[in-house]
Design goal:
three-stranded mixed β-sheet, about 15% strand, binds UDP-4-deoxy-4-formamido-beta-L-arabinopyranose, single chain, about 325 residues, alpha/beta, globular
Length: about 325
């Protein structure tokens, strides 16, 4: 059985759909701090499969232990964690306690029950402001905010666990910018409140729920002056997790993998792609740069292709079309 912590979340739910579709038996653990219970039924509806669910917080040892006592967990895909960059700057202790302490408790319980295989949800944010692009996994690591620091610290904790006990097998998946939604339009990214991220914000402008997009700076050293990122379809990202599970079930040791397309798109290129997908024009104004933003960030996905046998398949048009379909389905 695969335990998916944070499995009701945006990337978690899409990964659970692919796990079930691939025939895996899963259990989902989530505390709904950044997800909705309705997602669980949507996963069942999409796949026609059932699974165990535990409403549990990873900082509560008893709750997590119950899962391991009641099931034989072969591998954990660990998504659960707070992920808002801005909030992490305002409330570092909330982030360190939840993300770090929660992960330490999870690993202690995994060890106690002899489960030593993990796929960890890391982030390209651990590369800080890269000296060049595309980014390889052996690039220097640094962070510029507490959220990113929790990801980097957890990567280090997991490496140390594997040094102490060579039975562990861990894949550190460094996501670039996940966007889009499952083709059914039933699950997708639905942040509470005003979105921090670009595409959910554009979606709300397109849906008439926000007046215009603020483009955070057009004076970066990029093709059109706006920030460049590696946008990857959330379903491609989810399939990368299936490949990572296959690898950790077969091998031992710790490896980091970039899950990105290897292509960078600017903010204005995304606006144009979204306009094509939704058939509306997206109003925007050029606003000051956002503190902490970097000019360009996109992956060299060669290691993931070679060692996981994985590559992203979907293009920016499909990402925007799938995002728009989900937005239309969930206008309430
Ligand atoms: C993308 C581009 C902005 C909003 C963050 C986290 C990262 C990961 C993904 C968790 C940038 C520009 C954005 C807006 C804009 N999250 N932008 N107007 O910052 O690359 O990555 O989300 O793992 O860790 O750092 O994503 O979508 O916020 O920004 O102009 O209203 O869009 O400046 O160039 P980012 P983003």
């Amino acid at each position: 059985m695969i335990l998916v912590t944070g499995g009701a979340g945006y990337i978690g739910s899409h990964t659970c759909v692919e796990l079930l579709s691939a025939g895996y038996e899963i259990a989902i653990m989530d505390n709904f701090s950044n997800s909705q219970p309705e997602v669980l039924e949507k996963i069942r509806q999409i796949t026609g499969k059932d699974f165990k669910f535990y409403e549990a917080d990873m900082t509560a040892p008893e709750a997590t232990e119950t899962i391991f006592r009641e099931n034989t967990i072969d591998c954990v895909i660990h998504f659960a964690g707070y992920k808002a960059v801005g909030e992490s700057v305002q409330q570092p202790l909330k982030y360190y306690y939840n993300n770090i302490t929660g992960t330490v408790i999870l690993c202690q319980i995994m060890q106690k029950y002899g489960c030593k295989k993990m796929v960890f949800s890391s982030s390209a944010t651990v590369y800080g402001n890269p000296k060049s692009v595309p980014i390889r996994e052996d690039f220097p690591l640094s962070t510029t905010n507490p959220y990113g620091s929790t990801k980097l610290m957890i990567e280090q904790i997991l490496r140390d666990i594997a040094i102490a006990d060579s039975e562990w097998s861990i894949a550190l998946l460094r996501y670039f910018n996940p966007i889009g939604a499952h083709k059914s339009g039933l699950i997708g990214e639905s942040p509470n409140g005003i979105p921090n991220n670009l595409v959910p914000y554009i979606a709300k402008v397109a849906a008439g729920q926000l007046e215009h997009l603020n483009v955070f700076g057009n004076d970066y050293p990029t093709q059109d002056g706006t920030g460049v990122r590696d946008y990857i379809h959330v379903v491609d990202l989810s399939l990368g997790h299936i490949k990572a599970v296959e690898k950790v079930l077969k091998t031992k040791g710790v490896d980091a993998y970039n899950l990105g397309t290897g292509k960078g798109y600017s903010v204005l290129e995304i606006v144009k792609a979204y306009e094509k997908a939704c058939g509306k024009s997206i109003a925007y104004v050029i606003a000051p740069r956002r503190p902490g933003d970097i000019p360009a960030c996109y992956a060299d996905p060669a290691k993931s292709e070679k060692e996981l046998g994985w590559t992203a398949k979907m293009g920016i048009e499909e990402m925007c079309e799938d995002s728009w379909r989900f937005t239309l389905n969930n206008l309430h």
